[in-house]
Amino acid sequence: MTWIIGTLLFLCHLAGATTAVFALMSSRTSQGAVAWIITLVLFPYFSVPIFWIFGRPRFYGYVSARGERDTVLRQVLKRYRPHMEDYVSRPEAVSGRIRAVEQLAMMPMTRGNRVELLIDGERTFESLFAGIDQAEEYILVQFFIVRADEIGLAFKRKLIHQAEHGLNVYFLYDEIGSHSLPGGYLRDLEEAGVRVSAFNSSRGWRHRFQVNFRNHRKIVVVDGRAGWTGGLNVADEYLGRVERYGAWRDTHLKLEGPSVLALQEAFWEDWYWATGDILALGWRIHHVADATQHVAIVPSGPADGRETASLLVQHAIHGARHRLWVTSPYFVPDHGVQDALILAALRGVDVRVLIPERPDHLLVFLSAFAFLPEMIRNGVKIYRYQPGFLHQKTLLVDDHTAMVGTVNLDNRSFRLNFEVTAYVPDKTFAGEVTAMLEHDFAHSREVTEQELAARPLWRKVVSRATYLLSPIQ
């Protein structure tokens, strides 16, 4: 019996050492590598399985699938990308630096778009439902959270109606975000002819432990002609109907023009990973009369070779000269983003960060208190939204560029989630976002350094402890 126990202990520590080498070679941050190596070497009995569930830095299955689909997608791109030449933005016509954005997006910024700012749930779902009603060929739907509540059932009825009238409807959901979605909801869609699939982040035996990766994208595309993306999922709380959250503050976009095909491409790739099916979609660019806005769609995720979302945010911050306003419900940015915000404030930029007053994820909420005092001391202004829960993900640079999408300023969005962002270098749109955020700041309170310093010691200790867990929150 003694030799059996000794053998098991040896194998556990061997597994810990082997996994520690993998963590050393693959971790995206030095802090993460050190933390994992110490834990794996000293406590391999529980840390090895935890690492393979929560610590893997890249979505390797998706990387492989992307390599497989590239051959197929290239054939599609050969047919539709040449038609985009007339719509590709020229650097001299755009405020801000676009080359880095295009490199991060791996697709060109386009002109000839129309961008409509959709503030809060009522306006967003009104626009979304109208777009679904006007569909003629196909509808692509992708959400992180879908619930079978009042708005979720209304959404289902819309999709079923269109599927029963002969349209091709594709419904992609994240099985973790939509864990409470009943099987009957999905069966109703399938019986009506809707093609339904979970994202399947743990698809296949080699990837069954990748449950920490999530598809956080919200995308709807109708006929390749109109697209929607932003912060809202399909659930009653996004309309302010859940008392726990109160008034729900969120922002979404409606896009028309060549940028819609970029949204479509992101869905196309995710659908291929989830199902292995190659969708035959329309890739014709729909010209929009009198539309002049420039847009870059930037998908990001753990299959990328670089930290796309974090780099995009840092690029925007470094470009700010007068104003940098950020809203995020989950604000635990990496050190690169924290330092960029502080540097912007030190060079005289009006840096404001708007976060919720009331939390819906306690660990993330507590983690922010670990670094907020330093940010405030260096001139970054932190505000907390008062009327209800703030969920919008926006970033405003000076008076010329705004970003709206699904990216939160935390490790999960930067490294673990599949996300998508609309980067819009347009003064008219930036003006609309400015007016929207001015209204939000008017209904917020500024956090002071004295307020944070007055917290009891135990809360400061808890904040520092939870901050250490930020890589897996």
UniProtKB/TrEMBL annotation:
<feature type="domain" description="PLD phosphodiesterase">
    <location>
        <begin position="386"/>
        <end position="413"/>
    </location>
</feature>
<keyword id="KW-0472">Membrane</keyword>
<keyword id="KW-0808">Transferase</keyword>
<comment type="function">
    <text>Catalyzes the reversible phosphatidyl group transfer from one phosphatidylglycerol molecule to another to form cardiolipin (CL) (diphosphatidylglycerol) and glycerol.</text>
</comment>
<feature type="active site">
    <location>
        <position position="393"/>
    </location>
</feature>
<keyword id="KW-1208">Phospholipid metabolism</keyword>
<comment type="similarity">
    <text>Belongs to the phospholipase D family. Cardiolipin synthase subfamily. ClsA sub-subfamily.</text>
</comment>
<feature type="active site">
    <location>
        <position position="223"/>
    </location>
</feature>
<keyword id="KW-1003">Cell membrane</keyword>
<feature type="domain" description="PLD phosphodiesterase">
    <location>
        <begin position="211"/>
        <end position="238"/>
    </location>
</feature>
<dbReference type="Pfam" id="PF13091">
    <property type="entry name" value="PLDc_2"/>
</dbReference>
<feature type="active site">
    <location>
        <position position="391"/>
    </location>
</feature>
<feature type="active site">
    <location>
        <position position="398"/>
    </location>
</feature>
<keyword id="KW-0594">Phospholipid biosynthesis</keyword>
<dbReference type="Pfam" id="PF00614">
    <property type="entry name" value="PLDc"/>
</dbReference>
<feature type="transmembrane region" description="Helical">
    <location>
        <begin position="33"/>
        <end position="54"/>
    </location>
</feature>
<keyword id="KW-0444">Lipid biosynthesis</keyword>
<keyword id="KW-0812">Transmembrane</keyword>
<keyword id="KW-0443">Lipid metabolism</keyword>
<feature type="active site">
    <location>
        <position position="218"/>
    </location>
</feature>
<keyword id="KW-0677">Repeat</keyword>
<keyword id="KW-1133">Transmembrane helix</keyword>
<dbReference type="InterPro" id="IPR001736">
    <property type="entry name" value="PLipase_D/transphosphatidylase"/>
</dbReference>
<feature type="active site">
    <location>
        <position position="216"/>
    </location>
</feature>
<dbReference type="InterPro" id="IPR030840">
    <property type="entry name" value="CL_synthase_A"/>
</dbReference>
<protein>
    <recommendedName>
        <fullName>Cardiolipin synthase A</fullName>
        <ecNumber>2.7.8.-</ecNumber>
    </recommendedName>
</protein>
<dbReference type="InterPro" id="IPR022924">
    <property type="entry name" value="Cardiolipin_synthase"/>
</dbReference>
<dbReference type="InterPro" id="IPR025202">
    <property type="entry name" value="PLD-like_dom"/>
</dbReference>
